[in-house]
Amino acid sequence: MHLRMPEAMRTRVSLVRLVWAEEGDDVELPCDLTPPTPMDSVIMVLWFKDNIGIPLYSLDAREKGMVYAIHWAASDDLGNRTHFITGDGQRARLKVKTVKFNDQGIFRCRVDFSNSPTRNFLVNLTLVEQPTKPVIYDAQGHEVIGIPRFFEGYDFRLTCQVSGGRPKPTVTWWKDGELIDAVVDVPEISEITGSSSKFTVNHLFIPKVTRSLWGSKLECKAQSEPMKNPIIREVPLDIYLKPLAVKINLHDDLILAGRPIAAKCESWGSWPAATLAWSLGGVKFRDPVVATTQRRNSTLSKLALVLEREDDGKELSCTAINHNFPGGDLKESRLLRVAYPPIVDAQLAVGYNLESLREGDDLKLVCSVQSNPSPIEIIWFHNDTRLEHNVAEGILIATNTLTLRVLNLGHSGEYTCYGRNSIGDGRSLPLIIRMKFAPRCKAPYESRNIAVMLHDTVKLRCEVEAEPSDTVRFSWTFNETQGDVLPIQNSRPRNYELTSVLEYTPTTQGDYGTLGCWASNSVGRQKTPCLFHIVPAKYKFLNNCCCQHATLTVIVLCYASMIVNMRVSSPQY
């Protein structure tokens, strides 16, 4: 309650003096009459109640002094029960007999002095009153109705609030009959409603709730003296407990791929009882075949599954989940050992490239084996022929690697590796090795003798072997008997992949000699050309001779047969 006074008086008002009384008692309200200076004196005392402008009681000492001052009281019920006792200075008081409930309020004692400013003394007469029944609020300011729920390991906050009660009641917290918090907070502004407060509160704070609170009962007690019996509000607690343990049980440490197994998972310590979720390799089972049994605070789950070789090394996990306790999941994982026969793959070792493999290079192959248990034997095959370690032949075998030294065309072909363990065996797909090499003459085109007559045309066919074959280029050279190597003039070879055909016509004796067919690819130029030795054709005999008469001249016309390649030439004269 607020009392309005003129602005000039407000600076002279004392602090409010609180006086308690029980209904029916007599009470004295103090007022200090001590003058500010020894030479000053009181000339008038006026008592007002609340905001009523008419004095409840007055003392007028302006004419006769304090000893013979005139006392006056209002004629109402309260005035008839009041009397002012002057005493000495601070001992002055207004006595109210047989206090009633409506008597409580703000009493103002106004003291006027002869030479000093007026002083006002405020007295709050308050009757003892029983507080309301305690109301419990959670940390968010919501009233707790029913059983509040809290989380293990999290902070615990409850507020007990009572309204009214005079004098201010004590509000205390008790757990199972034991006092745990007696600190009382009396806010000026209600922490719950945000309005001016007549509330008394006690904030109970328990950091990191433990399992010991589970099933406990709290009590908030409110009591205003001299009340004999407190007002009690009971608060049963429901503490959500996260799972305390989870355990997976597998019958076999080594599991055969493709065979069904049963896994068990058990969890306990959760409230409410946990739900168990299975996962393999971090992925939850979509439709697991499980049988679940729940008890008060424990859960048992049985999972039936078939594991494959891809599951070897994965983790089988069981997670205990309390859906009422976010973040309280507990998981156990077991590393799976799934047994299966070898899965074999033949590969090039790091740093080797089939695209750049040439004669004379070294080559290293790796037999990659996935198996559990580890392989007890690895064997290499070349075109289905088992390879053995042979340093002299450049075949080096070590554990799972095969090294071939100084490659030649004989090393081309299919390479496979074979692995075996106690479960079974496996063989890789073939790794095909194609050697890159510069062109070389294909048999029987290494060297040939060709007899041809002057002015006769012969087709020379040159065939080579090469890898790669799609980039082969041909060139022809002529080597006279004197030993000079010259490009062939006016020649028009036709090239078809690995074949080059040259039409050659000797016109003079100097055109006889050796023609060289050269081929090249991305690897290089062939070292030795394909040779065609062009030699003059020799006549074996003349046939089909006939005579032509022309006056004095006789012309004999014959066809000659060559010794070499038996070609019929043009007529010779």
UniProtKB/TrEMBL annotation:
Localization terms from the record: Membrane
Sorted UniProt keywords: Disulfide bond, Membrane
Pfam families: C2-set_2 (PF08205), Ig_3 (PF13927)
InterPro entries the UniProt entry points to: CD80_C2-set, Ig-like_dom, Ig-like_dom_sf, Ig-like_fold, Ig_sub, Ig_sub2
UniProt GO cellular component terms: membrane
SUPFAM superfamilies: Immunoglobulin
Topological category with respect to the lipid bilayer: Single-pass membrane protein
PANTHER family attached to this UniProt entry: SIDESTEP PROTEIN, SIDESTEP, ISOFORM C
Name of this protein: Ig-like domain-containing protein
